[in-house]
Amino acid sequence: MLEFAHIIQINDPEQLQIPLMSRQQLWDGLVFRSKYPEHFNPTISSTIEEYTDDGFVRKLSFGAGHLHDRVILVDQQEIRTTPVDEQQALFAQSTTRIEEPVPGYLFVRFSYRRDAPPASDGIDVAEYLKAAYVENDREAVSLLRKFALEGLPGAGSWLQ
Q1: pTM, whole model, 2 decimals?
Q2: Is beta strand 92-102 parallel, antiparallel or unpaired with respect to 105-114?
Q3: Which CATH fold would you assign to the domain 2-149?
């Protein structure tokens, strides 16, 4: 089992060159990413199959693979994904948690737990996968910053 976490700082009121995001803007962007991951990674497509009292059930497709997971939303705090079918080909869970240790200083902690990839010709595939997750999250935060300035994509936007 591969388990790891990393954190990205969103706001630092002492760094004036980085526009501040409100907790609401950050939350809305993270929920948008959960609902429409294809806007952050064009190799993924997503279908929301059902809305629940605390989130939704979605199917993610990527190439020949797919994941069927339940997304649990804890308002303005965290987003958890868990497999709907424990017997699916790939087990993967994640938690995206907003942290604010001091008012105005926002962070997002990304935690992942998934089946470990098999070794391949002496390459540490797990370390490569961790680096890919971190890079994907950094790129997503960069896009969320843009959304905070310009607004989330909507019907008729360049992303729809």
Answers
A1: 0.87
A2: antiparallel
A3: Alpha-D-Glucose-1,6-Bisphosphate; Chain A, domain 4 (3.30.530)
